[in-house]
Amino acid sequence: MAENENSYKSILKGTSILGSVQVFQILVNLIRGKFVAMFLGPEGMGIASLFNSSANTISRFASLGLNLSFVKEVAFHRDEPDKLAQTIRIAKLLAILTAILGALATLLLATPLSIWTFGSPDYAWQYALMAVAIFFMVAGYGECSILQGLHKVKLISITSLAGALSGLLCGVPLYYFFGARGIVPAMIILSVTSYVCYRIGLIKGVPKRKVRLNWKEHMPVAKKMLSTGIILLSSSLINTCCTYLINIFVRVYGDLADVGLFNAANSITMQYVGVVFSAMALDYFPRLTAVAEDMTRMRSVIDRQLELVAIVATPLSLLLVATAPIVIRILLTSQFLPVTPLMRWLGISILLKAIAYPLGYIAFAKDNRRLFFLLEGVVCNILYLGLSLLFYRFFGLMGLGYAAVLENGLCIILYLAVNYRTYGYLPNRAAWREIAVGVITGAVGFTATLLPISATISYLLIGTICLFSSLRAFRQIRHRI
Question: Rounded to two decimals, what is the model's pTM?
Protein backbone atom coordinates (compact mmCIF):
# COMPACT_ATOMS: atom_id res chain seq x y z
CA MET A 1 0.00 0.00 0.00
CA ALA A 2 2.81 2.41 0.90
CA GLU A 3 4.61 1.65 -2.38
CA ASN A 4 1.45 2.34 -4.38
CA GLU A 5 0.98 5.63 -2.54
CA ASN A 6 4.56 6.55 -3.44
CA SER A 7 4.00 6.19 -7.19
CA TYR A 8 4.53 9.40 -9.16
CA LYS A 9 0.87 9.35 -10.17
CA SER A 10 -0.32 9.03 -6.56
CA ILE A 11 1.98 11.82 -5.33
CA LEU A 12 0.84 14.18 -8.09
CA LYS A 13 -2.80 13.26 -7.59
CA GLY A 14 -2.71 13.79 -3.83
CA THR A 15 -0.80 17.08 -4.08
CA SER A 16 -3.01 18.44 -6.89
CA ILE A 17 -6.27 17.52 -5.13
CA LEU A 18 -5.18 19.07 -1.83
CA GLY A 19 -3.70 22.06 -3.66
CA SER A 20 -7.05 22.63 -5.38
CA VAL A 21 -8.76 22.55 -1.98
CA GLN A 22 -6.31 25.16 -0.68
CA VAL A 23 -7.06 27.38 -3.69
CA PHE A 24 -10.81 26.98 -3.12
CA GLN A 25 -10.45 27.92 0.54
CA ILE A 26 -8.44 31.00 -0.40
CA LEU A 27 -11.19 32.00 -2.87
CA VAL A 28 -13.84 31.46 -0.16
CA ASN A 29 -11.85 33.69 2.20
CA LEU A 30 -11.55 36.34 -0.51
CA ILE A 31 -15.31 36.21 -1.15
CA ARG A 32 -16.00 36.40 2.58
CA GLY A 33 -13.65 39.38 2.79
CA LYS A 34 -15.51 41.04 -0.09
CA PHE A 35 -18.86 40.69 1.71
CA VAL A 36 -17.32 41.97 4.94
CA ALA A 37 -16.02 45.01 3.04
CA MET A 38 -19.44 45.57 1.42
CA PHE A 39 -21.63 45.17 4.51
CA LEU A 40 -19.28 46.31 7.29
CA GLY A 41 -17.03 48.89 5.64
CA PRO A 42 -13.36 49.59 6.45
CA GLU A 43 -13.94 49.77 10.20
CA GLY A 44 -15.86 46.50 10.27
CA MET A 45 -13.19 44.87 8.14
CA GLY A 46 -10.57 45.97 10.67
CA ILE A 47 -12.64 44.51 13.52
CA ALA A 48 -13.06 41.22 11.62
CA SER A 49 -9.30 41.04 10.97
CA LEU A 50 -8.51 41.55 14.66
CA PHE A 51 -11.02 38.89 15.73
CA ASN A 52 -9.69 36.42 13.16
CA SER A 53 -6.05 37.00 14.09
CA SER A 54 -6.97 36.62 17.78
CA ALA A 55 -8.81 33.35 17.11
CA ASN A 56 -5.96 31.95 15.00
CA THR A 57 -3.38 32.82 17.66
CA ILE A 58 -5.44 31.37 20.53
CA SER A 59 -6.28 28.17 18.63
CA ARG A 60 -2.63 27.75 17.67
CA PHE A 61 -1.55 27.92 21.31
CA ALA A 62 -4.49 25.81 22.51
CA SER A 63 -3.72 22.95 20.10
CA LEU A 64 -0.21 22.67 21.64
CA GLY A 65 1.22 21.70 18.25
CA LEU A 66 -0.55 18.34 18.51
CA ASN A 67 -1.95 18.32 14.95
CA LEU A 68 1.26 17.21 13.22
CA SER A 69 1.94 14.88 16.15
CA PHE A 70 -1.44 13.19 15.50
CA VAL A 71 -0.58 12.85 11.81
CA LYS A 72 2.72 11.17 12.64
CA GLU A 73 1.34 8.66 15.15
CA VAL A 74 -1.75 7.75 13.10
CA ALA A 75 0.29 7.31 9.90
CA PHE A 76 2.87 5.19 11.73
CA HIS A 77 0.24 2.73 13.02
CA ARG A 78 -1.95 2.77 9.92
CA ASP A 79 -1.36 -0.92 9.13
CA GLU A 80 -1.90 -2.10 12.73
CA PRO A 81 -5.69 -2.08 13.38
CA ASP A 82 -5.53 -2.42 17.19
CA LYS A 83 -2.80 0.17 17.74
CA LEU A 84 -4.42 2.46 15.18
CA ALA A 85 -7.74 2.36 17.02
CA GLN A 86 -5.98 3.15 20.32
CA THR A 87 -3.98 5.98 18.75
CA ILE A 88 -7.11 7.55 17.20
CA ARG A 89 -8.99 7.28 20.50
CA ILE A 90 -6.15 9.03 22.39
CA ALA A 91 -5.82 11.66 19.66
CA LYS A 92 -9.55 12.43 19.81
CA LEU A 93 -9.44 12.72 23.59
CA LEU A 94 -6.41 15.04 23.53
CA ALA A 95 -8.06 17.17 20.84
CA ILE A 96 -11.21 17.57 22.96
CA LEU A 97 -9.20 18.34 26.12
CA THR A 98 -7.11 21.01 24.38
CA ALA A 99 -10.28 22.41 22.78
CA ILE A 100 -11.90 22.72 26.23
CA LEU A 101 -8.78 24.37 27.67
CA GLY A 102 -8.64 26.82 24.75
CA ALA A 103 -12.33 27.69 25.15
CA LEU A 104 -12.00 28.17 28.92
CA ALA A 105 -8.90 30.35 28.49
CA THR A 106 -10.76 32.52 25.95
CA LEU A 107 -13.78 32.81 28.24
CA LEU A 108 -11.73 33.70 31.34
CA LEU A 109 -9.52 36.16 29.46
CA ALA A 110 -12.37 37.76 27.49
CA THR A 111 -11.97 41.21 29.09
CA PRO A 112 -8.13 41.31 28.95
CA LEU A 113 -8.23 40.11 25.31
CA SER A 114 -10.66 42.90 24.45
CA ILE A 115 -8.41 45.49 26.10
CA TRP A 116 -5.20 44.13 24.53
CA THR A 117 -6.71 43.90 21.06
CA PHE A 118 -9.06 46.90 20.89
CA GLY A 119 -7.88 49.05 23.79
CA SER A 120 -11.36 48.80 25.33
CA PRO A 121 -13.39 46.23 27.33
CA ASP A 122 -16.41 46.80 25.03
CA TYR A 123 -15.71 43.65 23.00
CA ALA A 124 -15.41 41.32 26.02
CA TRP A 125 -18.82 39.72 25.41
CA GLN A 126 -17.80 38.88 21.83
CA TYR A 127 -14.60 37.24 23.06
CA ALA A 128 -16.72 35.26 25.51
CA LEU A 129 -18.80 34.06 22.54
CA MET A 130 -15.60 33.32 20.63
CA ALA A 131 -14.83 30.60 23.17
CA VAL A 132 -17.36 28.44 21.30
CA ALA A 133 -15.54 29.03 18.00
CA ILE A 134 -12.19 28.22 19.61
CA PHE A 135 -13.51 24.92 20.93
CA PHE A 136 -14.72 23.75 17.54
CA MET A 137 -11.67 25.11 15.70
CA VAL A 138 -9.22 23.15 17.88
CA ALA A 139 -11.40 20.01 17.91
CA GLY A 140 -11.83 20.26 14.12
CA TYR A 141 -8.07 20.55 13.56
CA GLY A 142 -7.68 17.33 15.55
CA GLU A 143 -10.25 15.46 13.45
CA CYS A 144 -8.63 16.71 10.22
CA SER A 145 -5.18 15.62 11.43
CA ILE A 146 -6.43 12.07 12.00
CA LEU A 147 -7.81 11.97 8.43
CA GLN A 148 -4.49 13.30 7.21
CA GLY A 149 -2.59 10.59 9.06
CA LEU A 150 -4.85 7.99 7.45
CA HIS A 151 -4.04 9.60 4.07
CA LYS A 152 -7.74 10.03 3.25
CA VAL A 153 -7.06 12.62 0.55
CA LYS A 154 -10.53 12.58 -1.02
CA LEU A 155 -12.30 12.74 2.34
CA ILE A 156 -10.14 15.66 3.49
CA SER A 157 -10.91 17.45 0.21
CA ILE A 158 -14.67 16.89 0.36
CA THR A 159 -15.01 17.75 4.06
CA SER A 160 -12.82 20.87 3.74
CA LEU A 161 -14.81 22.13 0.75
CA ALA A 162 -18.15 21.41 2.43
CA GLY A 163 -17.11 23.12 5.66
CA ALA A 164 -15.76 26.23 3.93
CA LEU A 165 -18.75 26.60 1.60
CA SER A 166 -21.43 26.03 4.26
CA GLY A 167 -19.63 28.44 6.61
CA LEU A 168 -19.65 31.09 3.87
CA LEU A 169 -23.34 30.63 2.99
CA CYS A 170 -24.43 30.73 6.63
CA GLY A 171 -22.08 33.52 7.69
CA VAL A 172 -22.75 36.16 5.01
CA PRO A 173 -26.40 36.78 6.06
CA LEU A 174 -25.14 37.55 9.58
CA TYR A 175 -22.90 40.33 8.21
CA TYR A 176 -25.89 41.73 6.30
CA PHE A 177 -28.43 41.69 9.16
CA PHE A 178 -26.23 42.32 12.20
CA GLY A 179 -23.21 44.20 10.87
CA ALA A 180 -20.10 44.01 13.07
CA ARG A 181 -22.08 42.16 15.75
CA GLY A 182 -22.41 39.24 13.32
CA ILE A 183 -18.64 38.70 12.96
CA VAL A 184 -18.14 36.36 15.91
CA PRO A 185 -21.43 34.42 15.32
CA ALA A 186 -20.25 33.90 11.71
CA MET A 187 -16.93 32.58 13.04
CA ILE A 188 -18.83 30.19 15.30
CA ILE A 189 -20.93 28.88 12.39
CA LEU A 190 -17.81 28.38 10.24
CA SER A 191 -15.98 26.48 13.01
CA VAL A 192 -19.04 24.32 13.83
CA THR A 193 -19.75 23.42 10.18
CA SER A 194 -16.08 22.59 9.58
CA TYR A 195 -15.97 20.41 12.69
CA VAL A 196 -19.18 18.59 11.74
CA CYS A 197 -17.88 17.93 8.22
CA TYR A 198 -14.54 16.59 9.51
CA ARG A 199 -16.42 14.49 12.07
CA ILE A 200 -18.65 12.94 9.39
CA GLY A 201 -15.57 12.31 7.25
CA LEU A 202 -13.83 10.55 10.13
CA ILE A 203 -16.87 8.38 10.85
CA LYS A 204 -16.96 7.34 7.18
CA GLY A 205 -13.21 6.93 6.85
CA VAL A 206 -12.47 4.92 10.00
CA PRO A 207 -14.04 1.51 10.68
CA LYS A 208 -15.86 1.34 14.03
CA ARG A 209 -13.72 -0.39 16.62
CA LYS A 210 -14.40 -0.26 20.35
CA VAL A 211 -11.40 0.63 22.46
CA ARG A 212 -11.31 0.64 26.23
CA LEU A 213 -9.19 3.51 27.45
CA ASN A 214 -6.67 2.39 30.05
CA TRP A 215 -4.67 5.39 31.20
CA LYS A 216 -1.82 3.31 32.62
CA GLU A 217 -1.42 1.58 29.29
CA HIS A 218 -2.09 4.58 27.04
CA MET A 219 -0.42 7.37 29.03
CA PRO A 220 3.00 6.86 27.36
CA VAL A 221 1.39 7.36 23.93
CA ALA A 222 -0.40 10.51 25.13
CA LYS A 223 2.83 11.85 26.68
CA LYS A 224 4.70 11.16 23.44
CA MET A 225 2.09 13.07 21.42
CA LEU A 226 2.18 15.98 23.87
CA SER A 227 5.98 16.20 23.97
CA THR A 228 6.16 16.08 20.16
CA GLY A 229 3.43 18.74 19.90
CA ILE A 230 5.17 21.06 22.34
CA ILE A 231 8.44 20.74 20.38
CA LEU A 232 6.59 21.71 17.18
CA LEU A 233 4.87 24.61 18.94
CA SER A 234 8.21 25.82 20.35
CA SER A 235 9.78 25.68 16.88
CA SER A 236 6.90 27.72 15.47
CA LEU A 237 7.16 30.28 18.29
CA ILE A 238 10.90 30.71 17.68
CA ASN A 239 10.15 31.43 14.01
CA THR A 240 7.47 33.97 15.02
CA CYS A 241 9.91 35.68 17.42
CA CYS A 242 12.64 35.82 14.74
CA THR A 243 10.23 37.46 12.27
CA TYR A 244 9.18 39.94 14.96
CA LEU A 245 12.82 40.82 15.74
CA ILE A 246 13.56 41.34 12.03
CA ASN A 247 10.63 43.78 11.79
CA ILE A 248 11.86 45.66 14.88
CA PHE A 249 15.42 45.81 13.48
CA VAL A 250 14.17 47.12 10.12
CA ARG A 251 12.12 49.80 11.90
CA VAL A 252 15.07 50.89 14.08
CA TYR A 253 17.78 50.90 11.39
CA GLY A 254 15.47 51.77 8.51
CA ASP A 255 11.94 53.17 8.67
CA LEU A 256 8.30 52.13 8.78
CA ALA A 257 8.12 52.25 4.97
CA ASP A 258 10.75 49.50 4.76
CA VAL A 259 8.79 47.43 7.29
CA GLY A 260 5.64 47.82 5.19
CA LEU A 261 7.39 46.96 1.92
CA PHE A 262 9.12 43.90 3.39
CA ASN A 263 5.91 42.53 4.90
CA ALA A 264 3.96 43.21 1.70
CA ALA A 265 6.49 41.26 -0.41
CA ASN A 266 6.76 38.48 2.18
CA SER A 267 2.97 38.19 2.51
CA ILE A 268 2.39 37.89 -1.25
CA THR A 269 5.19 35.34 -1.62
CA MET A 270 3.89 33.21 1.26
CA GLN A 271 0.34 33.30 -0.10
CA TYR A 272 1.64 32.32 -3.53
CA VAL A 273 3.55 29.27 -2.28
CA GLY A 274 1.34 28.50 0.71
CA VAL A 275 -0.91 26.39 -1.50
CA VAL A 276 2.00 24.22 -2.64
CA PHE A 277 3.57 23.79 0.81
CA SER A 278 0.24 23.10 2.54
CA ALA A 279 -0.66 20.47 -0.04
CA MET A 280 2.82 18.94 0.24
CA ALA A 281 2.56 18.73 4.04
CA LEU A 282 -0.89 17.12 3.87
CA ASP A 283 0.23 14.51 1.33
CA TYR A 284 3.98 13.93 1.85
CA PHE A 285 4.36 13.71 5.61
CA PRO A 286 1.86 10.84 6.18
CA ARG A 287 3.52 8.82 3.39
CA LEU A 288 6.97 9.45 4.85
CA THR A 289 5.93 8.52 8.39
CA ALA A 290 4.19 5.32 7.25
CA VAL A 291 7.52 3.90 5.98
CA ALA A 292 9.81 5.47 8.63
CA GLU A 293 11.06 2.09 9.91
CA ASP A 294 12.12 0.88 6.45
CA MET A 295 14.99 3.08 5.22
CA THR A 296 14.90 1.61 1.70
CA ARG A 297 11.24 2.54 1.21
CA MET A 298 11.82 5.85 2.97
CA ARG A 299 14.57 6.72 0.48
CA SER A 300 12.16 6.01 -2.34
CA VAL A 301 9.52 8.33 -0.83
CA ILE A 302 12.02 11.18 -0.34
CA ASP A 303 13.69 10.77 -3.76
CA ARG A 304 10.42 10.82 -5.69
CA GLN A 305 9.16 13.79 -3.68
CA LEU A 306 12.38 15.70 -4.35
CA GLU A 307 12.15 14.96 -8.07
CA LEU A 308 8.58 16.20 -8.39
CA VAL A 309 9.14 19.19 -6.10
CA ALA A 310 12.09 20.37 -8.21
CA ILE A 311 10.14 19.82 -11.46
CA VAL A 312 6.99 21.66 -10.29
CA ALA A 313 8.58 24.41 -8.15
CA THR A 314 10.92 25.67 -10.89
CA PRO A 315 8.26 27.06 -13.28
CA LEU A 316 6.20 28.34 -10.32
CA SER A 317 9.20 30.21 -8.95
CA LEU A 318 10.05 31.66 -12.37
CA LEU A 319 6.43 32.67 -12.90
CA LEU A 320 6.50 34.75 -9.72
CA VAL A 321 9.81 36.33 -10.74
CA ALA A 322 8.40 37.19 -14.20
CA THR A 323 5.03 38.53 -13.03
CA ALA A 324 6.12 40.27 -9.81
CA PRO A 325 5.18 43.81 -11.00
CA ILE A 326 1.76 42.61 -12.26
CA VAL A 327 1.04 40.72 -9.02
CA ILE A 328 1.98 43.79 -6.97
CA ARG A 329 -0.36 46.02 -9.01
CA ILE A 330 -3.24 43.53 -8.66
CA LEU A 331 -2.89 42.65 -4.98
CA LEU A 332 -1.46 45.95 -3.73
CA THR A 333 -1.04 49.30 -5.52
CA SER A 334 1.53 50.88 -7.81
CA GLN A 335 3.02 52.55 -4.69
CA PHE A 336 4.49 49.16 -3.76
CA LEU A 337 6.31 48.67 -7.10
CA PRO A 338 9.71 49.54 -5.51
CA VAL A 339 9.48 46.17 -3.73
CA THR A 340 9.61 44.29 -7.09
CA PRO A 341 13.36 43.39 -6.90
CA LEU A 342 12.94 42.10 -3.32
CA MET A 343 9.94 40.02 -4.35
CA ARG A 344 11.97 38.49 -7.16
CA TRP A 345 14.72 37.45 -4.75
CA LEU A 346 12.06 35.94 -2.48
CA GLY A 347 10.61 34.20 -5.54
CA ILE A 348 13.94 32.45 -6.19
CA SER A 349 14.22 31.56 -2.50
CA ILE A 350 10.92 29.66 -2.90
CA LEU A 351 12.62 27.16 -5.22
CA LEU A 352 15.33 26.45 -2.63
CA LYS A 353 12.77 26.29 0.17
CA ALA A 354 10.74 23.73 -1.79
CA ILE A 355 13.83 21.54 -2.22
CA ALA A 356 14.71 21.84 1.48
CA TYR A 357 11.15 20.97 2.56
CA PRO A 358 11.20 17.17 1.99
CA LEU A 359 14.65 16.94 3.60
CA GLY A 360 13.62 18.84 6.72
CA TYR A 361 10.94 16.33 7.76
CA ILE A 362 13.18 13.24 7.74
CA ALA A 363 14.35 13.59 11.36
CA PHE A 364 10.78 14.20 12.56
CA ALA A 365 9.41 11.17 10.67
CA LYS A 366 12.20 9.06 12.22
CA ASP A 367 11.01 10.27 15.66
CA ASN A 368 14.28 12.09 16.32
CA ARG A 369 12.52 15.03 17.96
CA ARG A 370 15.62 16.57 19.50
CA LEU A 371 17.44 16.66 16.15
CA PHE A 372 14.36 18.06 14.38
CA PHE A 373 13.98 20.83 16.96
CA LEU A 374 17.69 21.66 16.81
CA LEU A 375 17.67 21.88 13.00
CA GLU A 376 14.23 23.33 12.24
CA GLY A 377 13.55 25.26 15.44
CA VAL A 378 16.96 26.60 16.42
CA VAL A 379 19.66 26.50 13.71
CA CYS A 380 17.58 27.45 10.65
CA ASN A 381 15.63 30.16 12.49
CA ILE A 382 18.77 31.71 14.00
CA LEU A 383 20.43 31.51 10.59
CA TYR A 384 17.41 33.31 9.08
CA LEU A 385 17.50 35.98 11.80
CA GLY A 386 21.27 36.52 11.72
CA LEU A 387 21.55 36.74 7.92
CA SER A 388 18.52 39.05 7.67
CA LEU A 389 19.89 41.50 10.24
CA LEU A 390 23.40 41.43 8.77
CA PHE A 391 22.35 41.82 5.14
CA TYR A 392 19.76 44.51 5.87
CA ARG A 393 22.40 46.52 7.75
CA PHE A 394 24.73 46.48 4.73
CA PHE A 395 22.37 46.24 1.73
CA GLY A 396 19.08 47.69 2.95
CA LEU A 397 15.76 46.19 1.88
CA MET A 398 17.34 44.08 -0.88
CA GLY A 399 19.52 42.45 1.77
CA LEU A 400 16.45 40.66 3.13
CA GLY A 401 16.05 38.98 -0.26
CA TYR A 402 19.74 37.99 -0.37
CA ALA A 403 19.37 36.57 3.15
CA ALA A 404 16.32 34.45 2.19
CA VAL A 405 18.16 32.88 -0.77
CA LEU A 406 21.35 32.22 1.21
CA GLU A 407 19.48 30.88 4.26
CA ASN A 408 17.48 28.35 2.22
CA GLY A 409 20.58 27.30 0.29
CA LEU A 410 22.54 26.75 3.52
CA CYS A 411 19.60 24.84 5.03
CA ILE A 412 19.65 22.41 2.06
CA ILE A 413 23.37 21.78 2.63
CA LEU A 414 22.80 21.39 6.38
CA TYR A 415 19.91 18.93 5.92
CA LEU A 416 21.90 16.88 3.40
CA ALA A 417 24.94 16.70 5.70
CA VAL A 418 22.96 15.81 8.83
CA ASN A 419 20.69 13.27 7.09
CA TYR A 420 23.71 11.58 5.50
CA ARG A 421 25.62 11.41 8.78
CA THR A 422 22.59 10.29 10.82
CA TYR A 423 20.64 8.07 8.42
CA GLY A 424 23.03 7.48 5.53
CA TYR A 425 20.61 9.24 3.16
CA LEU A 426 21.60 11.15 0.04
CA PRO A 427 19.30 11.82 -2.97
CA ASN A 428 19.58 9.38 -5.89
CA ARG A 429 20.85 10.35 -9.34
CA ALA A 430 17.39 11.23 -10.71
CA ALA A 431 16.66 13.54 -7.78
CA TRP A 432 20.08 15.25 -8.09
CA ARG A 433 19.50 15.75 -11.82
CA GLU A 434 16.13 17.46 -11.30
CA ILE A 435 17.49 19.60 -8.46
CA ALA A 436 20.45 20.70 -10.61
CA VAL A 437 18.24 21.47 -13.64
CA GLY A 438 15.77 23.38 -11.44
CA VAL A 439 18.42 25.50 -9.70
CA ILE A 440 20.30 26.28 -12.94
CA THR A 441 17.09 27.15 -14.84
CA GLY A 442 15.89 29.32 -11.94
CA ALA A 443 19.24 31.11 -11.71
CA VAL A 444 19.34 31.79 -15.47
CA GLY A 445 15.76 33.09 -15.48
CA PHE A 446 16.40 35.32 -12.48
CA THR A 447 19.62 36.68 -14.02
CA ALA A 448 17.59 37.85 -17.02
CA THR A 449 15.88 40.39 -14.72
CA LEU A 450 19.26 41.79 -13.58
CA LEU A 451 20.83 42.38 -17.00
CA PRO A 452 21.28 46.02 -18.12
CA ILE A 453 18.81 45.65 -21.00
CA SER A 454 15.42 47.13 -21.81
CA ALA A 455 12.39 45.94 -19.82
CA THR A 456 10.81 44.50 -22.99
CA ILE A 457 13.80 42.30 -23.82
CA SER A 458 14.10 41.29 -20.16
CA TYR A 459 10.45 40.17 -20.08
CA LEU A 460 10.87 38.29 -23.36
CA LEU A 461 13.92 36.47 -22.01
CA ILE A 462 12.40 35.44 -18.70
CA GLY A 463 9.09 34.66 -20.40
CA THR A 464 10.88 32.29 -22.80
CA ILE A 465 12.78 30.61 -19.96
CA CYS A 466 9.57 30.31 -17.92
CA LEU A 467 7.78 28.75 -20.91
CA PHE A 468 10.67 26.33 -21.48
CA SER A 469 10.60 25.33 -17.80
CA SER A 470 6.82 24.82 -17.86
CA LEU A 471 6.95 22.67 -21.02
CA ARG A 472 9.78 20.62 -19.57
CA ALA A 473 7.85 20.16 -16.31
CA PHE A 474 4.79 18.99 -18.26
CA ARG A 475 6.90 16.54 -20.28
CA GLN A 476 8.71 15.17 -17.22
CA ILE A 477 5.45 14.68 -15.29
CA ARG A 478 3.85 12.96 -18.29
CA HIS A 479 6.84 10.68 -18.60
CA ARG A 480 6.60 9.65 -14.94
CA ILE A 481 2.88 8.85 -14.89
Answer: 0.75
